[in-house]
Design brief:
481 residues; 6-stranded mixed sheet; alpha+beta; Creatine Amidinohydrolase; disordered N terminus; metalloaminopeptidase activity; Pept_M24; single chain; 21 strands; 36% helix; Creatine Amidinohydrolase, Chain A, domain 1; metal-binding; Aminopeptidase P N-terminal domain-containing protein
């Protein structure tokens, strides 16, 4: 009887276009809004923690960087398919998300001095709505994302060519470029005359220095990752399998509010720890092994990244402790160099000299030759972090650091089982990675709550028993004060 009454009052379109929250009907635009998800967003926020005013400010700053009579064209990330009809979980392109707040595929954003902020949005058919649900259309672009102009995607071929012809230069996202505008005669003509550039040279400049709202999310993301990794460390003897530890850390991150992992966790037990981006995670941990875990989570578009290495069975061996102490001291000394005016390149060069000297003293390096050292550690000391794990890739590591920039410090040594050196060190991989915020006076280690001292780690592992170290899994509303 109740269903009959509901169907009399609400049309099919209204029924699938709205959801019931409490006693009212709230429009469904395909992503959370303050009305539909009050536990996540406050009034005025487009995404959790980031207000419409901040998105408007970002676009104004982009216009300040755009030459006169220039146009920025950004397409949303494509949907990637797991099988022919089943997609992978969608993740928005960082540049598109940074400027629009739209977390859905199928759109194109155009920003220019003359046109302002224009969005071309996909249209959902009744069939699409039944199978995939509602999406944000042109109306949502105006009302939610605060576009100056908005059109259905089918209008792009009519409207965008005139915008392009009236522009001296075009900047577009080469990683998400789509035929809808690439195939336009006006775009191809501009490209032929060398007028098309990569928009990331501008957007990465904007994204490099984080706002207070962004830093709040990044700190919470780092906190979640630290809590999750600590819980995983506690259980590493109970679950001595790489696959289980990978599952455990993801579970702990998600239960604390993370939407996804920032990348596939690296869980390298024993000699697998010497494979820098090891991702198979399919081996058993043995007594005497170390396990290297490189993890991070994503919270409302902002990621974390940290690595710890420890002995699941409770004690470092003598050669493991020698190498670990060298990496730890390099980590701590490198962190001390993180301050305004320094650069990642300078910190990297310092760390290389420190590691090279230490490896020579231990007897692993017979000389300071760069080629042999490079086999043991071919990585940079760190990278920028933000909306992407390797954030702002267009920005040089020679750039002087400024307050609001977040980087990683991650010295390591990776000695394969076939290494032609002292046998006692073969098959050992160690990395200690922290996430560091540059402040006005120096630095703040965002992952500082995660233990890394040898005695601290051994004590925690050996004193842990069932029920210790457990924390509540209440979801965290990170935009709260």
């Amino acid at each position: 009887m109740l269903m009959r009454k509901l169907f009399r009052r609400v049309s099919f379109t209204q029924a699938i276009g709205c959801r019931a929250y409490g006693t009212g009907m709230v429009p469904d635009i395909g992503q959370p809004t303050p009305a539909s998800h009050s536990q996540l967003l406050r009034e005025g926020e487009i995404t959790p923690g980031i207000t419409s005013d901040e998105y408007i400010s970002r676009r104004r700053k982009l216009l300040d960087l755009l030459p006169e009579k220039s146009l920025a064209i950004l397409a949303a990330a494509p949907v990637k398919m797991m099988t022919d009809v089943v997609p992978y979980t969608f993740r928005q392109d960082a540049d598109y998300s940074y400027l629009t707040g739209c977390q859905q595929p199928g759109g194109v954003a155009v920003i220019g001095h003359d046109c302002g902020f224009c969005m071309f949005m996909p249209e959902a058919t009744p069939h699409d709505v039944i199978w995939q649900g509602q999406i944000a259309g042109a109306n949502a672009a105006l009302e939610v994302f605060k576009a100056d102009r908005a059109y259905p995607m089918r209008k792009l071929k009519e409207i965008l060519p005139d915008m392009i012809r009236g522009s001296c230069k075009l900047f577009h996202n080469v990683h998400t470029a789509i035929p809808a505008y690439l195939d336009l005669e006006a775009f191809q003509k501009a490209a032929y005359h060398g007028k098309v550039k990569n928009v990331s040279i501008l957007t990465h400049e904007l994204r490099l220095i984080k706002s207070p709202a962004e830093l709040k999310l990044m700190k919470e993301s780092a906190s979640i990752a630290c809590q999750a990794l600590l819980q995983t460390m506690f259980h590493s003897k109970t679950y001595p399998y790489e696959s289980m530890l990978s599952t455990k850390v993801e579970y702990e991150c998600r239960m604390r509010g993370a939407q996804r992992m920032a990348f596939n966790p690296v869980v390298g037990g024993g000699p697998n720890g010497s494979v820098i981006h090891y991702s198979r995670n399919d081996q058993t941990l043995k007594d005497g092994d170390l396990v290297l875990m490189d993890v991070g989570c994503e919270l409302h578009g902002y990621v974390s990244d940290l690595t710890r290495t420890w002995p699941p069975y409770g004690s470092f061996s003598s050669p493991q402790e020698e190498l670990y102490d060298l990496i730890l001291q390099t980590n701590k000394e490198s962190v001390k160099l993180c301050k305004p005016g320094a650069s990642i390149r300078q910190i990297h060069n310092y760390s290389v000299e420190m590691l090279r000297k230490g490896l020579k003293e231990i007897g692993i390096l017979k000389d300071g030759g760069s080629s042999l050292y490079h086999q043991l550690n071919p990585t940079s000391i760190g990278h920028y972090v933000g909306m992407d794990v390797h954030d702002c890739s267009m920005v040089s590591y020679d750039r002087p650091l400024k307050p609001g920039i977040v980087i990683t410090i991650e010295p390591g040594v990776y000695i394969s089982s076939s290494f032609d050196g002292p046998e006692r060190y073969r098959g050992i991989g160690i990395r200690i990675e922290d996430e560091v915020l540059i402040t006005g006076t120096g630095y703040e280690v965002l992952t500082g709550s995660m233990p890394k001292e040898i005695k601290q780690i051994e004590s925690l592992l050996n004193n842990f028993c069932h029920g210790m170290g457990r924390e509540s899994h209440n979801s965290i509303r990170t935009a709260s004060s």
